[in-house]
Structure formats: structure tokens, C-alpha cells
């Protein structure tokens, strides 16, 4: 069950229509998880500073069980997420940062229990 959170200083009107759905589909493909399990949040118009600069930027947080736990996995994921983000947001790769968080099944609650028991 991946969670993807995109924070950006870009105003909402500069984001492409359907960006959350595009990120959902891209995440499913990149991480090899069903789209029905992907959760996406997009927050725009934020006051942000990246690398000391307030120029337009974005931060992507990717959390998931079993597929973001190694440097090798995340190197491959990072390249693909950067391709999506630079194309969708019109930002250079130097204005984007991605953070990966491995999760355990007991850290995600769903249907009144945790994923360990589903």
C-alpha cells in the first residue's frame, strides 16, 4: 500500500489537470503495486525553500511496504519518478527532491486493523 505525497510551491493553476491520478498510475507502475492500493496527496502553493532557494520546487515522499527499502531499489525508482515529475511539473531535476520511507505492515491501519492481518 504505497503512499505518495507531493508538496510543491507551484500554484494549483500551474499543475496539470489530473496530476494526482497521473501520479497514482505512475506510482503503481514504478513500484509494481496495483493502482487500487496507491494513495496520493498533492499539496500546491506552499511556501518552500529547496537548497537555499525559494524558486519553484517540489518534494515527493514515497512510503511503501517492501519496495523502497534498499539503495538499489530507490536509485531505480528515483530515476523514474524524476522523469514523471520533471515532465508533469516543468521543473528541472535540481528543483525536486524525493524521500523514500520503507514501511512495515503493522504501521498501516485499514478496515479497523493493520495490514499485517489483512
From TrEMBL:
E.C. number(s) listed in UniProt: 4.1.1.84
Broad class of enzyme this protein falls into: lyase
Keyword vocabulary terms for this entry: Acetylation, Cytoplasm, Lyase, Melanin biosynthesis
Subcellular location: Cytoplasm
GO biological process assignments: melanin biosynthetic process
Pfam families: MIF
Gene3D superfamilies per record: Macrophage Migration Inhibitory Factor
InterPro entries: Macrophage_inhib_fac (IPR001398), Macrophage_inhib_fac_CS (IPR019829), Tautomerase/MIF_sf (IPR014347)
Main location: cytoplasm
Gene Ontology CC terms: cytoplasm; extracellular space
UniProt-recorded Gene Ontology molecular function terms: D-dopachrome decarboxylase activity; phenylpyruvate tautomerase activity
Assembly: Homotrimer.
Function: Tautomerization of D-dopachrome with decarboxylation to give 5,6-dihydroxyindole (DHI).
Alphabetical list of PANTHER family matching this protein: D-DOPACHROME DECARBOXYLASE (PTHR11954:SF22)
Family: Belongs to the MIF family.
UniProt name for this protein: D-dopachrome decarboxylase
Species of provenance: Junco hyemalis (Dark-eyed junco)
